[in-house]
Amino acid sequence: MIRVQREDFDIGAELEALTAGNHRIGGIATFVGTVRDIADGRPISTMTLEHYPGMTEKQLGAIEQEALQRWDLESCLIIHRYGRLEPGERIVMVATTSAHRAAALESCAFLIDWLKTKAPFWKLEETDGGAQWVDARATDEDAAARWSDPSKS
Amino acid sequence: MLYFAWLRQRVGVAEETVDLPDDVTTVGTMLAWLRGRSDAHATALADLSVVRVAVNQDYARDGDPVANHDEVALFPPVTGG
């Protein structure tokens, strides 16, 4: 399931809903991304996430389908927020469930690595030195690229 | 055409409708043609290594086709998650 929303989410309630009534599930992997209060040594007052409505849902849906094909999962959830966020606020949640831990852990890492390089979101950080768009990181590209190698999956 | 993040700020609009000339049929030729629309476009598109293109909400490369009525978006490398 994919959700792109402005409002916050409740991690516990989301995990309850993702697993409710499904006793084939033996493991749940979760990643939650939050807003840091510092970037390149400078304090951040707020961060604004811009996105491309329509394409975001399309790309996240495609990434989810790929995870469901590559791993034996019971359920999958991606929530990504947009709009103005303050340090400490949740940005993104990825959760995967499976009978055994490996599929859940690997697919959760795959999903967050891929959405960082493919999902059309852009971060604008506000510091006392002004607002600045966050640059993409080569390390994120490298993290996503490891999933392209069939020997690693 | 849709523009996002600093590309939107540099071009000066979030969205514009353009009429592609007959000889503009690919993403690559479209980018070159867009640069000539205004100084703002030329500045925004000066370094194409930091410009990503989507056609009808899928990532596209220089050689991919583009035509009038397509939804084309230009944006910087993404930084979500």
Structure characterization notes:
The complex is a heterodimer of chains A (153) and B (81). Chain A has 153 residues and is an alpha+beta fold. In chain A, 33% of the residues lie in helices and 35% in strands. Chain A has one domain: Molybdopterin biosynthesis MoaE subunit (Aldehyde Oxidoreductase, domain 3), CATH 3.90.1170.40. In chain A, strands 3, 4, 6, 8 and 9 form a five-stranded antiparallel sheet that branches. Chain B is globular, with a radius of gyration of 12 Å. In chain B, strands 1-4-2-3 form a four-stranded mixed sheet. Chain B has a single domain (2-75), classed as Ubiquitin-like (UB roll) (Roll), CATH 3.10.20. Chain B is α+β, with helices and mostly antiparallel strands and 81 residues long. The chains are: A alpha+beta (153), B alpha+beta (81). Chains A and B meet through β4, α2, α3 and β8 of A and loops of B.
List keywords for this structure.
heterodimer, A: 153 residues, alpha+beta, Aldehyde Oxidoreductase, domain 3, four-stranded mixed beta sheet, B: 81 residues, Ubiquitin-like (UB roll), 4 strands, globular
Low-confidence parts of chain A, pLDDT < 50 over ≥5 residues? none
Q: How many domains, in number, for the residues of chain A?
A: 1
- State Rg of chain A: 16 Å
Question: What fraction of residues of chain A sit in β-strands?
Answer: 35-45%
Largest interface, with Cβ-Cβ < 8 Å? A-B, 29 and 16 residues
- Measured as a percent range, the helix fraction of chain B is 25-40%
The helix content of chain A is: 25-40%
Q: What's the CATH architecture name of chain A?
A: Alpha-Beta Complex
Let me know the largest β-sheet of chain A.
5 strands, antiparallel
SS element count, helices of chain A: 4
Q: Could you list the spans of chain B in which at least 5 consecutive residues all have pLDDT below 50?
A: none
CATH C-level name of chain B: Alpha Beta
Number of helices of chain B: 3
Compressed to H and E, one letter per element, the order of chain B equals EHHHEEE
